[in-house]
Amino acid sequence: MPARLRDSNPVGRAKPPSAGLAAPGSRRSSCHSAQGSMIVIATAVAIAALGLAVTPMAVQAPADQIPRTWDGHPDLSGIWQAVGTAHWDVQDHAAQPGPMWELGAIGAIPAGLGVVEGREIPYQPWAAAKKKENFQSRRTDDPEAKCYLPGVPRATYLPFPFQIVPGTNKIMVLYEFAGANRVIHMDEGPPTPVDTWMGYSVGRWAGETLVVDVTGFNDQTWFDRAGNFHSEALRVVERYTPISPYHLNYEVTIEDSKVFTRPWKISMPLYRRMDKNVQLLEFRCIPFAEELLYGHLRKQTTK
Questions:
Q1: Does 45 fall in a domain?
Q2: CA-CA distance, 82 to 55, in Å (whole number)?
Q3: For residue 116, what are the contacts with CB-CB under 8 A and spacing of at least 6?
Q4: Is a pLDDT exceeding 50 seen at residue 179?
Q5: SS3 content of the chain, % helix, strand, coil (to 5)
């Protein structure tokens, strides 16, 4: 299947609002940064106190407004993208320096409200300590930095678009990052013989929702750049629900008895890319990661 697949109905799309940044390196910017952090935390606490979810409310569009395939199911075809900061950290986080201070504000981490239901990830004690270790070494240990396949659900909310291509008994999902892809089997076959980065996906329709059960993972991927991780016992159940012709509600239940004390959920909206001539482009990142992975093997010359 070609790497570049065009969307069938491109028109212009509105740009998301951008947040202002204070100038770094001054007492005023430090004050603004502290105030910004307090505002983010206070807002999250206030929302939680009111018993409200931090993710936008999904308002279902009338059924006759949702595009359909030939068999009457919602048509999820097109190019989609998450807009948010979950790729940095799926939990609430204040603005902070990035792992490479040399990049200055360019590499800084923007503040964000989390996408985790209940705001906390239920780590077992040893796993909570491991997550902190991952965070400290994220510059070199993050699988994304190494150009590993991103796994599920991380592939969905990386800051890259992805494409859903429905078929009769299979649904193909193509991701721009690292040329990753996976097949959702709507006619369940035998389980995968080996564990992989992207797992083995089996789908079914539950009313208007595409439910995908993903198993067969290895332990080589993270959930974000903050070091949230899992083991090879990971099971992911995704739910894609159209809420308009241009939006999907994406909900994920995550289970891993080796790492977490109970299942937990994340949710976020996905947006159909409506740019003129929108298409997936190539992001073959292996050459970008070679120095990180293999630089230490370079032959040292003596003078």
A1: no
A2: 13
A3: 90, 91, 264, 265, 266
A4: yes
A5: 20, 25, 50
In a domain, residue 10? The reply is: no
The residues near 175 (Cβ < 8 Å, ≥ 6 apart) are 150, 155, 158, 160, 162, 181
Please report, to the nearest 10 degrees, the dihedral formed by the alpha carbons of residues 10, 14, 15, 20 taken in order.
180
Distance CA 272, CA 59 (A): 16
Per-residue pLDDT tens over the stretch 242-297: 999 999 999 999 999 999 999 999 999 999 999 999 999 999 998 998 888 888 88
Measured CA to CA, the distance from residue 17 to residue 269 in angstroms comes to 16
Report the alpha-carbon distance of residue 52 to residue 146 in Å, rounded: 37
Q: Does some domain include residue 78? A: yes
User: Pairing state of beta strands 181-185 and 200-206?
Assistant: parallel
Q: What is the CA radius of gyration of the chain?
A: 20
Contacts of 20 (CB under 8 A, 6+ apart): none
Burial class (CB in 10 A: 0-12, 13-18, 19+), 176: buried
CB atoms within 10 A of CB 217: 24
Taking the C-alpha atoms of residue 197 and residue 232, their distance in angstroms, rounded to an integer, is: 10
Instruction: Taking residues 17-26, report their average pLDDT.
Output: 38
User: How many domains does the chain divide into?
Assistant: 1
Residue 98 tokens read as 């990035």
pLDDT score of 7 more than 80: no
Q: Is residue 12 part of a domain?
A: no
Find how far residue 196's CA is from the centre of its chain. Answer: 18
Domain extent at residue 211: 55-297
